[in-house]
Design brief:
Elements (H helix, E strand, L loop, with lengths): L5 H9 L4 E5 L18 H4 L3 H4 L2 H6 L1 H12 L10 H11 L3 E6 L5 H5 L6 E3 L2 E8 L5 E3 H9 L14 E5 L8 H13 L2 E5 L11 H7 L3 E6 L11 E4 L2 H8 L6
Parallel strand pairs: 1-2, 1-7, 2-3, 7-8, 8-9
Antiparallel strand pairs: 4-5, 4-6
Bound molecules: nicotinamide-adenine-dinucleotide and zinc ion (ZN).
């Protein structure tokens, strides 16, 4: 079903000169990667899973780390492909008006879809790399997974022997100030902020919405459910991303 206010929202996108898109886990559910808080979200179905992504347990409990590596071996992300929602954002890039994609996602699907990696701001990191929690050494995730497959249940850092993890920001871990600053800078200088597939409940990144609005940008929110920032939006378009985004970006229906 196409929501009634979609035409007005599409006009805002059509006349934008400097677009910033903010995405959350909802844009990847059509690629087969579950979100956290949606109706079929990982945490909605299993509240205990929230604990497993806490850095404290990861650092102190080797069994939590071994389980995390086993899980990384066959996560849906390795076989997932970008979906229509991702491709609609590529359309915006082709139009020459896309300034940045700020994403909370760690799946790397924006880059896979063809977005210039320099335009993607991954505020919660990426699971396509590993990082040593002691010396900071960054390597490809596939290299670590090869070691797990070869029998190392919790592969230590090759450089210093420290504990390695996906290069993501777990709960209890600090965000990277330069990355967050860049996201807010983009929010302050865009003329339209399009937020897609996020409950907008994770702080501080949800604050890019009021920040953009206070700096004069128009805000459009596309999500299946209400979000915590709906009050800041010029248009809240509620519906499925695959239905809404093609219309919003002016892509011809297939
Ligand atoms: P969230 O789970 O809090 O919210 C996702 C929102 O998207 C929900 O409100 C849901 O109703 C909506 N949604 C899901 N599928 C949709 C669809 N097809 N059409 C329209 N709406 C849809 O996600 P969040 O706000 O990104 O916060 C979750 C945190 O978890 C992030 O910080 C992120 O780092 C992490 N995460 C990432 C991934 C990923 O990389 N794909 C997946 C799960 C969680
Ligand atoms: Zn190290």
């Amino acid at each position: 079903m196409v929501p009634p206010n979609i035409a007005a929202a599409a006009e805002v996108i059509a006349s934008a000169q400097r677009l910033v898109v903010l995405t959350g886990a909802g844009i990847s559910t059509d690629s087969g990667i579950p979100d956290f808080r949606g109706p079929n979200g990982v945490w909605t179905r299993n509240p205990a899973a929230e604990k497993a992504s806490n850095i404290h347990y990861y650092l102190t409990d080797p069994e939590v780390r071994r389980a995390a590596w086993r899980q990384r071996l066959d996560t849906a992300v390795w076989t997932a492909e970008p979906n229509l929602g991702h491709h609609c954002i590529v359309d915006l890039q082709r139009s020459g008006r896309l300034a940045a994609v700020i994403t909370q996602n760690i799946d790397g699907l924006h880059q896979e879809s063809g977005i210039d990696p320099d335009l993607v701001i991954e505020v919660h990191g990426t699971m396509r790399d590993t990082r040593c929690l002691d010396c900071g050494d960054v390597r490809s995730m596939q290299e670590a997974l090869d070691r797990v497959r070869a029998g190392e249940a919790d592969p230590p850092c090759r450089r210093c022997g420290g504990i390695m993890k996906a290069d993501t920001i777990s709960f209890g871990q600090a965000l990277i100030p330069e990355v967050i600053d860049r996201a807010f800078q983009m929010a302050q200088t865009c003329d339209v902020l399009l937020a897609v597939g996020s409950s907008l409940s994770v702080s501080p990144i949800n604050q890019v919405v009021p920040t953009a609005s206070r700096h004069g940008a128009k805000v459009i929110i596309v999500n299946g459910e209400r979000t915590e920032m709906d009050a800041w939006a010029h248009h809240v378009v509620r519906g499925s991303i695959a239905d809404v985004l093609p219309v919003l970006v002016g892509r011809r229906p297939r």
